[in-house]
Design the sequence.
């Protein structure tokens, strides 16, 4: 299995801001995002740039994804792949590994605590890295109280419970990124509209950013990705490196 954690750390060591570039067919807020493009061609374009990994949204109903799309992306790249969906069972995790993903998203808000604990343990047992996502500072208590040590931890700047249709922005990352557990990569997810937002997230303590809509809606997606990674990994004075 490829390691998204190792890829993020390698991009940081080279002075780049680690960017996880997303492939997402549509969103409840923004509508169609692929605009007829082949996900495989997008993956090849991403892989030609210094991204840390690729996020593939496989949720079918609201976001238009599929596990088959994940398989097709895996066929054309060796970059680490994060599967974004709403897994509920150990069978979902086995499907994730079989399809070629290296990491799985687990959202605190969308899972009962017992399910979160069980799925996190099962994912690690299968060799999957875990990106555990929080939206509110209070959700961090769940991790502490139940001994959940994720491979990566992320702040979703928007509320997934309402399909990320709210007007959240990177200010949410700024509000509590410093309170995330140390020693694991910290991600800022959603509402990253360009390099200025990426810089704010980095200076607040994020090690990496996960960006979908801004890349997919850009007139030149490759130029958008380059502008993000060139933000660099060294925080401004007063920030967290």
Sequence:
């Amino acid at each position: 299995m490829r390691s998204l954690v190792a890829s993020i750390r390698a991009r940081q060591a080279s002075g780049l801001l680690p960017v996880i570039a997303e492939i997402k067919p549509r969103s409840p807020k923004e509508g169609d995002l692929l605009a007829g493009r082949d996900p495989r061609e997008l993956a090849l374009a991403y892989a030609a740039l210094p991204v840390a990994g690729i996020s593939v949204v496989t949720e079918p109903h609201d976001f238009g994804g599929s596990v088959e799309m994940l398989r097709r992306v895996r066929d054309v790249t060796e970059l680490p792949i994060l599967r974004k969906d709403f897994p509920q069972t150990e069978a979902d995790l086995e499907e994730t590994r079989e399809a070629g993903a290296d990491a799985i998203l687990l959202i605190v808000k969308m899972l009962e605590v017992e399910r979160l604990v069980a799925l996190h343990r099962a994912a690690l047992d299968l060799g999957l890295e875990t990106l555990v996502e929080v939206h509110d500072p209070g959700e961090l208590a769940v991790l502490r109280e139940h001994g959940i040590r994720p491979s990566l931890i992320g702040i979703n700047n928007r509320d997934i419970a309402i399909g990320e249709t709210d007007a959240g922005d990177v200010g949410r990352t700024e509000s509590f990124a410093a309170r995330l557990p140390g020693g694991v990569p910290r991600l800022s997810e959603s509402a990253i509209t360009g390099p200025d937002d990426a810089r704010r997230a980095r200076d607040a303590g994020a090690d990496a950013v996960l960006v979908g809509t801004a890349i997919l809606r850009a007139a030149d997606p490759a130029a958008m990705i380059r502008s993000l990674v060139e933000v660099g990994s060294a925080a401004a004075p007063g920030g967290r490196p």
About this structure: Residues 235-241 have pLDDT under 50 and may be disordered. The beta strands are 19-23, 26-27, 31-32, 53-57, 81-84, 103-107, 129-134, 152-156, 186-189, 208-211. The chain is about 35% helix and 15% strand.
